[in-house]
Specification:
The structure holds 2 protein chains of 2 kinds.
Chain A lengths: L1 H20 L9 E3 L19 H10 L15 E4 L14 H6 L7 E5 L10 E4 L3 H6 L7
Helix pairs in contact in A: 1-2
Chain B lengths: L1 H15 L7 E3 L8 E2 L9 E7 L5 E5 L6 E8 L5 E5 L10 E6 L12 E4 L4 E10 L5 H8 L3 E4 L11 E2 L6 E2 L7 H10 L9 H8 L8 H14 L1
Parallel strand pairs in B: 1-11, 2-12, 7-8
Antiparallel strand pairs in B: 1-3, 3-9, 4-7, 4-10, 5-6, 5-9
Chain lengths: 143, 230
């Protein structure tokens, strides 16, 4: 049973990375929104026909306290880097300082370390960056 | 996953920060790495609390928005489903007021004058952000947060003194355990909370490892006894 929990952690971590990679916030960059709601823009992931177990698991693996509905005018957004500039998974104590350095001043605020150094896939969260400010700084490929 | 995560936040607060049900954590400072919370930000000081509706309906008094501060956030049930927004996007629309959180199966009359929220589960939790408006200081936001009150409806005529803890300098571990303790936390949840239809398959799987949720009849008996004792 102890192994099952560890397996579950790795499964969720892998699902979280896959979700981020398929939902990049900008082209050419390895950042993704940490809040990806269900089809009804809520966070219970229960539809007319199914319960989206993996989507729910990943969302609550990454964070807590989601709003009833997340619409496009939401006051808060969270951006999380999911890989370094070369697309390598972020690992505490290895390439994490590189990701920090790439954080452009004023675009967002680095706010919390989600996991202990040494854990795989350490997530840095950026909070409270108004979307219009972020979008105005959309990077280009040659930047 | 959502249930175990919010349960660990509750248990972490009770084990490390010295509060119990209805005590309020009000941060005077923004989060530091001592605040081991998933997706916490370091821009707004947090306010959080936990309660257990097995002891009856809960009153939550939210202060009206002032020129310096506004509070917003979510109240969630044991499955971390948002059951109420509070603040400008909530029923009080930023004007403040009294929320009444009603436990599942509660049959007694509900008094007037409350924003009534029917909770599908017993253990509830909230996290609000006390937002500084233009020209306000962190102290303003903190003092504003300290206007919150929570107590059981049975205590409404003479509410107890509100307990606040400022955990700014304290370590607050909340991350779920990914080892055998995960199962204990899971059991502590399913042995208390009503089973929803959507979760019956999962409860069947838990039964295969000896973890049986309390039946609805048993929960009703327990709740009735608690209400009688009050």
């Amino acid at each position: 049973m102890e192994k099952a929990v560890v397996d579950a952690w790795f499964y969720l971590q892998q699902q979280a990375e896959a979700r981020a990679q398929s939902n990049p916030f900008w082209p050419y960059r390895h950042w993704s929104s940490a809040l990806i709601p269900g089809p009804d823009l809520g966070f219970d992931y229960v539809t007319d026909t199914s319960i989206l177990l993996d989507a729910r698991g990943v969302q609550f693996f990454l964070g807590t306290y989601y709003p009833k509905v997340l619409n496009e005018h939401a006051a808060t957004m969270y951006l999380a880097p999911f890989a370094d500039k070369d697309g390598a998974r972020l690992e505490g104590g290895k390439n994490i300082s590189d990701a920090c350095a790439r954080q452009r001043a004023g675009s967002a605020v680095l706010v919390a370390y989600g996991l202990r150094p040494g854990d795989l896939g350490l997530h840095l969260f950026a909070g409270n960056a108004p979307r219009h400010l972020v979008v105005r700084q959309t990077p280009t490929e040659d930047e | 996953m959502p249930a175990v995560s919010i349960y660990r936040m509750r248990a972490g607060a009770f084990e490390h920060l010295g509060i119990t049900d209805n005590g309020i954590l009000a941060y005077s400072q923004t989060c530091t790495p001592r605040c081991e919370v998933l997706t916490a930000n370091n821009a707004t000081p947090y306010v959080a609390a936990y309660s257990d509706l097995r002891k009856g309906p809960l009153v939550l008094e939210v202060p009206a928005r002032t020129e310096k501060s506004v509070m917003y956030g979510q109240i969630v049930d044991a499955w971390q489903t948002a059951i109420a927004n509070v603040g400008p996007s909530g029923a009080d629309k930023g004007k403040g007021g009294k929320y009444l959180l009603v436990p599942p199966g509660y049959k007694k009359p509900i008094p007037e004058g409350y924003f009534v929220v029917h909770s599908p589960g017993y253990r509830i939790a909230f996290a609000f952000r006390s937002v500084k408006l233009a020209g306000a200081s962190s102290a303003d936001a903190y003092n504003y947060a300290r206007k919150l009150r929570m107590y059981y409806l049975g205590e409404a005529t003479n509410p107890p003194a509100q307990k606040f803890v400022d955990p700014s300098d304290m370590r607050y571990p909340t991350l779920p355990f990914y080892d055998a303790r995960y199962y204990q936390d899971l059991y502590d949840i399913v042995s208390v909370e009503p089973v929803q239809t959507r979760d019956k398959v999962m409860m069947g799987m838990l039964a295969s490892i000896g973890m049986n949720p309390a039946s609805r009849t048993r929960q009703r008996q327990l709740s009735r006894r608690r209400w009688k004792r009050r």
